[in-house]
Amino acid sequence: MKNSHTKIVGTAICITLMAVIVIVFAGYLMKNIGFPSSVEENRALYEIADDTDTIYYRGKTYRYNSDLMNVLFLGIDTSDEITLQDMPGLAGQSDCIFILSANRKEETVHLLQISRDTMTEVDLFDVSGNYLTSIQAQIATQYAYGNGEQSSCWAAKKTISELLYSLPIDAYISMNLEGISKMNDAVGGVTLTLTQDATEIDSSFRKGNTVTLNGEQAEAFVRYRDINVSGSNQDRMERQMQYLPALLQAARNAVGSSGDYYKTFYHVLEPYTVTDLSAEQMNQLAAYDFLENEVETVPGTLQAGTEYDEFYVDDNELYALIIDLFYQEVN
């Protein structure tokens, strides 16, 4: 709900977790994506082949890229350590949402960013975890309708996969707010040259300045937005994507030749993190290159709602983007 004063909300600790997770994936994906529900008039353009990893789109045949691995990243807007919640709806919201896709053959990683304001069908559950109904709401709220641990991650994973036309997601990680300052300080600070003015956050955050962020500054840099200004989350998303490569490089410098990211950082992040990734998986992809110039965002239109901003996905553009990122044309 809008307040009368400017407020720091949300989280961007997902930026921290993304930097760690650039090196922590697992899984093998192969599944077909579904029809965009709002493009019935173009349904003939989207045909399913007999084998489940192949589709026909606009007269061409595509097959899912089996070299890819997808991990869901959630940054949660509560500063408490991860604990089991008693009531659904109280577990916090996922203010940062990313799909990190690693190409095992090319040893590269690209990122798909999803606005927390995206409007979609969100599932509601009772205190026993039984499904009740679905409502149209911001996708960030789906995490809240769980217990703050595995069930919240599972519910978010399911809803986000459905938004992306049943895109396979085979691992997840969520992190609470305090994790970003801890991680930032664990790597000895993060240095970056600012690409936008953010002096409303810190007087030193002027466009063009090179700054080394301490933990408190880093948290504010990737977390701040003015909820009284429509579209402020978009600016925050841009800052998050600038921070990520710099944090990743700092983490690699701190780890050095050992390559043991789990041993180096997991004790810092563990109190604030829920994941289904193992220590071995956390170190497995440490050498993968993050394609910072190939970050994509789910396409759509932002509107000012009655109480909150509402982002509506462009189904046709998103479907084409999913094919471009996760499928290969079959000759």
Walk me through what this model shows.
The chain has 331 residues and is an alpha+beta fold. It has 8 helices and 17 strands. Strands 4, 5, 6, 9, 12, 13 and 14 form a 7-stranded mixed β-sheet that branches. Strand 1 (46-48) and strand 2 (54-57) form a beta hairpin. Helix 1 packs across helix 3 (179-186) and helix 1 (13-21) crosses helix 5 (232-255).
Core attributes:
alpha+beta; disordered N terminus; globular; 8 helices; 7-stranded mixed β-sheet; 27% helix; 331 residues; 26% strand; 17 strands
List the helices and strands and how they pair.
Elements: H1 13-21, E1 46-48, E2 54-57, E3 60-64, E4 68-76, E5 94-103, E6 108-114, E7 119-125, E8 131-138, H2 150-163, E9 172-176, H3 179-186, E10 190-193, E11 210-213, H4 215-223, H5 232-255, H6 261-269, E12 273-275, H7 279-284, E13 289-290, E14 296-297, E15 300-304, E16 309-313, H8 315-326, E17 327-329
Parallel strand pairs: 4-9, 6-13, 6-14
Antiparallel strand pairs: 1-2, 2-3, 3-17, 4-5, 5-6, 7-8, 9-12, 10-11, 15-16
Helix pairs in contact: 1-3, 1-5, 3-4, 4-5
